[in-house]
Write a structure and sequence with these properties.
Layout (H helix, E strand, L loop, with lengths): L5 H10 L11 H14 L4 H9 L11 H13 L1 H8 L6 H16 L11 H12 L6
Amino acid sequence: MELRGVEELMDLLYACRDPGGAGAGGSGHALRAAALLRRARPADKELQVAALVRPVGRLLGPGDPAARTADAVGPLLGARVADLVRRHPAAGADDLLALRAADEEARTACFDPGVLEDWRTVLELLAARESRPTAPG
């Protein structure tokens, strides 16, 4: 499945919400991981978004959720986000370690990560950058 836009991605993220936001597999966990990465690596929006979108693969059918998520968000948010979601070596070892550390810390972190809607602008910026035509070269 290829996402047609940020609105469709937001719908999927809202559908992933876990009751109370406490579960390790839902958007509450993903929000915490993304917020932790926002603090640790504020300029790296792709890394933050990779943590945020990881749960959507559970809703996209059978198979590997990470691969389904990467296939769905890659065309919308870019190859780097897809590689990070897949945890592909091309994403870079430091980035994968940061993503894993945020994922682990988000399991036990007790703080208010904000709301999903806070991420809409970041998603829209990445999607707009990805959809820009490249200059002939």
